[in-house]
Amino acid sequence: MAKSLTAGELRVEDQDTLVQKLKEAKEELFNLRFQAATGQLESHGRLRAVRREIARIYTVMRERELGIVTVEKETSDG
After folding, report:
1. DSSP codes, 8-44
2. pTM of the predicted protein model
3. What is the longest distance spanned by two Cα atoms in the chain?
4. CB-CB contact of 7 with 60 (8 Å)
């Protein structure tokens, strides 16, 4: 995940996509932590960005679970 996603961008995604993005972000965080432990990490700011991205995904998922925000499906006019 090269760029950080905003909460608004995450809210329009479906649940399966959110789960996939969460999995990818957790894998990236693991790799970044591994690089940091071995002294190979070049961008320490990316650790913080990935942690925040994971928190955003969890927040959007929890909002849906509580019914605070609902997913609006686009309807086709065809």
Report:
1. HHHHTS-HHHHHHHHHHHHHHHHHHHHHHHHT--S-T
2. 0.81
3. 55
4. yes
What gap in Å lies between CA 20 and CA 33, rounded to an integer?
20
Q: What number of CA atoms fall less than 13 Å from residue 16's CA on the CB side?
A: 0
Q: Return the pLDDT at 71.
A: 65
- The tally of CA atoms less than 13 A away on the side-chain side of residue 3 is 5
Q: Please give the C-alpha separations between residue 44 and each of 8, 18, 47, 77, in angstroms, as whole numbers.
A: 26, 25, 6, 47
> Would you say the C-alpha torsion 56, 59, 64, 67 has a positive or negative sign?
negative
Q: Express each pLDDT in 4-28 by its tens digit.
A: 788 888 889 899 999 999 999 999 9
